[in-house]
Amino acid sequence: MVAPSSTPVLSITALETDIGGSRILRGFDLKVDAGEVVALMGRNGVGKTTTLRSITGGLPVRAGNITLAGQPIHRLSADARARLGIGYVPQGRDIFPLLTVEENLRVGLVVHGIKGKAAASALGRVYDLFPVLKEMLSRKGGVLSGGQQQQLAIGRALLTNPKLLILDEPTEGIQPSIIDQIGDTLKKLKVSTRTEEEQTSEGRKEAAEIMEAVRKLREEHALAILLVEQYVDFCREVADRFYAMDRGTITASGAIAALTDEVVATHLQV
Fold it and tell me: What gap in Å lies between CA 246 and CA 207, rounded to an integer?
């Protein structure tokens, strides 16, 4: 972990957000420093996605403050926040299934006006982190495995060299514990007839590749990463700190070493 500066990359103070007249977020503080991975955890429906939408501009904030590198952003539009340095990889990845890997990446460059040497450097960084993407440049996004799609989505978000990278459930669909979902996805895409044992091995390999990329981003690029994730072991491996949510507020937080089985049972298990 890189030593934190006096100004966090992301700072949330007393955040409150409503949806349809109902209070979803009930006032909490959260911060992420440069070179740090922070896990935001919680059961389904506790407010994690609403928190991300509040940060990225998808929902208006009722009260509280959100700053990016010290600059207030909670009144800015979503595109203005992205230009200031927020990279967001949503749950479901949102890649273009009919475009190739290369086209998916170049769309990101074009949208942000990145050209020439800057574009080549940005792509090189992505290929260093995810070598499999360079091997699959001509393959359509829709025929990639779940883990490969996730790597493509993260790579595309990194092309703009963001200050803050937000990852929403990055292991979804690729972990051995949910191998049935991997199998269903592969059947839909019609790319393989591998055995369940082979699929399990592939899921484990892809999870390890994403885990290693997160570590590199933290250590080599001093990037602040906010990770929304339910897979506890993944968080224990890559995160520096954690926040546990319930009913729209933070119920536990601390160094990742404090994410004990007791904390998990109390705050995270259904």
Answer: 27
**Cα torsion 60, 232, 145, 165: sign:** positive
* pLDDT digits 0-9 by tens, 148-207: 888 899 899 989 889 999 999 887 766 443 323 333 322 222 233 334 444 445 556 676
Long-range contacts from 206-209, C-beta under 8 angstroms, 24+ separation: 206/145, 206/146, 206/147, 206/148, 206/150, 206/151, 206/174, 207/147, 207/171, 207/174, 207/175, 207/176, 207/234, 209/130, 209/132, 209/147, 209/151
Give the H/E segment covering residue 269: none
- The sign of the torsion formed by the CA atoms of 54, 27, 9, 61 equals positive
Give the integer Cα–Cα distance in Å for 73 and 55: 8
Sketch the domain layout of the chain as residue ranges: 10-267
Q: Check: CATH 3.10.580.10 for 10-267?
A: no
Q: Scanning the structure block, which residue is given the tokens 């792509």?
A: 123
CA dist., res. 139 & res. 141, Å (int): 6
Model confidence pLDDT, tens digit, residues 213-234:
777 776 665 688 999 988 888 7
